[in-house]
Non-ribosomal peptide synthetase (Pseudoalteromonas rubra), 357 residues
Amino acid sequence: MLDDETTARRIASLDMARLDDKPSSDALAYIIYTSGSTGQPKGVMIEHKGVVNLVLALHEKYALTAQDRILQFASVSFDMSVEEIFTSLCHGNTLVLRTDECMASANAFWRYCESMAVSVFNLPPVFFHELLSDDVSPMASSLRLVSVGGDKLPEQDIVSWYQRAPDSILMTAYGPTEYSVNISVAQLKAEASFQIGKPLANTAVYVLDEQLNTLPTGAVGELCVSGVGLARGYLNKPEQTAQQFVPNPYYEQGAVQHGAVLYRTGDLVRWLDNGNLDYVGRQDQQVKIRGFRVEPGEIESLLNQSPLLSAALVVVNKAQRHEAKLVAYVIAASAELEADLVTELQQYLAERLPSYM
């Protein structure tokens, strides 16, 4: 756009003197609306310091160089576009805008990326899976790194990716809109289970129980976050802001990552022995089965890790008035496994879960 002659003339005619007013680090950078459980959109207010922290952190994590060409895949109505646009332009990379035509098929997408020499892009899991479903079209030879975020990535997709692109880097990024795009990133390995990684710089993550007490490694709790990327809250929604953005009991004066405010994500995670975070599910799926608190997401996560399955979904069946039951819908990894699938899955879960689950 800046190369357009009309635009260039307009810029040249403007007063080139520096503006006296400079935005402070805590000035508002953008507002992006996100849907909530109530169905009413909430305007999330993100400050300049959060975007700057994101840009610097991802430049290091992605090992970006001036030769990288980054695809802007996301619409500007989604916060992923903030990562794509500013991480690219603030470090001298080329930002490549996708076209509607390149989304017509996996073949069209790869041909476009090849023609534009795209080396880095972020994709949602659904589109990532669509690309993998086409194992005929050649991938772009310029590809160096792909980051997938927004949902948990099936482990079979990770394996399939490295079978097709063994020399590339596959990463995942996790973060709610209420933090500056990403809280954590992780490089995914074909031989390892899915993890959402470690916190970005100047970001503190806490795994807490209902009373906001810290939990030990391996225990499932709510992911709460503090740091320079934290949003101000929800625009014109003080009550919802107060519910989700609470005083941080682990506040440390002078430590930017342990800020005075804590955001409760509602996501359930656990710390792993390697210092990474394991995503389990959503807190609001919690139910009581025979008096026990049960997380369907935890069972679903285990089922999706089983080599016997290609996909699994666990839901609560409340057809009976006085007793809720958990029902698992599964797809066998192959037709040969279907005969004894139920018995083998019951044994698989019994070895990994408490008896009441």
Notes: The longest helix spans residues 48-61. The mean pLDDT is 89. The radius of gyration is 23 Å. Residues 23-284 form a domain with the Rossmann fold fold (CATH 3.40.50.12780).
